[in-house]
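Dear U.,

For the methods section draft, I wanted the exact inputs and outputs in one place so we can describe them consistently. I've listed the two proteins in the order they'll appear in the manuscript figures. Please don't edit the token lines directly; just add comments below if something needs changing.

First protein:
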Amino acid sequence: MLYIEVPECILCALESRMQEIKKFGVNDVNNYMRISMKISELIPRGRTPLFIESFEEIMRILNNNDPHAKEKVELENVASSILHRVIENAGDDITRYFEIAAAANSVDVPMRDYQFDIDDFVNKLLEDAVWLGISKNKLGELLGSVRSVGYVVDNSGEFQIDALLIRRLVDVGINVTVYARGLPYEVDVTADYVSKVLNNTNVKVVSTGTRYPVFYNRSLLGSLKEHDLVISKGVGNFEAYLENNLNLKVLFLFRAKCGPMIRMLRVPKNSPVIYSTL
């Protein structure tokens, strides 16, 4: 599956990248033409290459290897300041941390039909999730037999919630391996950053080595298959999984932000979703 919906996903890439260079103050019409031409060139390769390599074109236009660096720091700082609310709400209920991790996926760059609002991130962090393919009770039972988890991270800000969940998993005796992009992409955390945040935990961190998500790295698929459970954050990772027709034991945690995702899953717009392939 190259795209969930061909026209919508292509329009999303085009609008997202145009909004992004506008946000960075780009006014030269030639640069907008460059992005349009790059997107046209990438369309036959599918959604993930389209988004990854059009972002690399933006980096070249801006002459900046990490254009969202300042924004990522701000997101992490905001999330850190409200962690006490998460802990108070979830208490000792580890499945509640999964719901909050899904709700935290409101963080993103501008895209078609969705604009990130930091106030929404703060105010909607404790929303209940829509459970698909698994129930909250079933997850609780499942975790009792899980010994190894692969955790695929996504955006800055929400990563602070992920780190809380990762620590909870470690506390109950589960071995956790975190998978992160090796190079900067949008507002995603990198493996180097994850290692710094989790340096005082018994957690292994694995880099994809590139800007591409882990589900595009064939050399890491064997490692992913060895886990009793893979927890994957964000729409981009979910779509990368679908594009490659993989068959892994995955629990996807994300917000349904776009029309194609909403229609495919039949969930309300922007709802937190926990989707199981188990």
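Second protein (the one for the lower panel):
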Amino acid sequence: MEQRKLIQFGTNSFVVSIPKKWLSRNNLGKGDPLYIQDLGSSLNIRSNIGKPTADQREIHIDGTEHIESIKLRILTAYINNIRRIIIMNPQEQSGAIRSILHGVIALEIVEQTPQVIVAQDYLDMHQISVKELFRQVDVILRSMLADINHALTEPASPRRSRIGADLTARDQDINRLVVLALRTITYRLRNLEEHDPAHLLKQWEAFYTLEKTGDEVKRIGRLITQADLTAKQDIMYILKDIEELYTEIMEIHYLSDKEAAYRLAAKKAQRMERLQHL
């Protein structure tokens, strides 16, 4: 971060110099307009507001490709902040393509015919809070772990019979939030004047870990509905330990308590040994 001094200009105005490196990178020179947004304790200076950028381009996708390829292309375009996605010749895959588009936050279908599906993105990337997305994913994961433990303590409960479907639905919610988080982080990595790249990469890793945790919790829920639970007490002990460990990890994360994280990591071998003896 560079420090600049204010220079008085006339009687009512002040000026500040702009780093030449930033001007060169954005192809700016004398007379070019800049746009300033007042954020309270800080100012956001941009050079491209109101102008079409590479991130606002549209993309065309062949709707006759395999549905998994179409899904990957849609998600890649979304994460790269491409605002308009056009799927040509969707034909008999229209239903599956609509499901993919509806599974992405703020991507709305604005046109659909047998020949084309057009989806428009209306997100304001400056309004997305990565911290809030993280907390939402955390809340969902805690509820998933709590429901698994509840289902084990009440085998006859109707909740146990439907827990697999419930966990799958909530895992899909996690996936939607994580994709939006990755898109936001990608966007900020391309605007490094405003963000710390090391911090953004740590956020990326944290979301990736939560997404994988959700996948494993979903699988555990599916297994306990199919198992005869002959080792019920052992399974309950393991899952309760996982839930408590997850809660402790999240508390340490929110407090940014490095010393507590080191102490918890030191107990990993002991915990694994105890679980292996069950």
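Candidate sentences for the figure legend, describing the second protein: Strands lie at 7-9, 13-15, 35-38, 43-46, 58-62, 84-88, 107-112, 116-121. The first helix runs from residue 20 to 25.

Thanks,
Y.
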